[in-house]
What does this fold into?
Amino acid sequence: MRLSFAAPTSWIALSTLLFSLNASAGIEQQLSQCAAHQDKLDRLICYDNLAAKVGYKSQANSHVAPVSKPAPAAQPKPAPQAAAVVASTPAASEASFGKVQKVEKVELDKVNLTVASVQKNAHGALTITFDNGQVWKQNDSRRFRLKAGDKVYIEKGALGSFLLGKEDANATIRVKRID
It folds into this structure.
């Protein structure tokens, strides 16, 4: 009995295998025929037609239920909602195409500090330590009077530079943070 049951199963498997090998050989042959076209447009049309045939066959085969397994129970599909999300995503990205994305950064333009200590180097440039631990160095050669305990401000200047000044004085010096 086993022998008679195995024989039809093996014949079905063998015929399926031969059919699939024949089909893949046919596709390869058709691909080589498309590649043989000299005109670019003709070659593209040939590839498109072949892809449409292969796509149709694979969709038709995917809907065939296997004989040995029962068909799965139908479950509600969230496909319409997913399609709506996917459909709205390109529209949203298309609407924002080319717009400059503004990210709001909290940047300070001016900082008020208290001087903890001041040192002068041999060239007269100041190295200023503030009460919060920051250390700044003078970049220009202008004279500027500072002493410990003075209230100063540092503000942004042009081209990424920083200016140090006093509220009661009209002068500023260019500084750079070193620590």
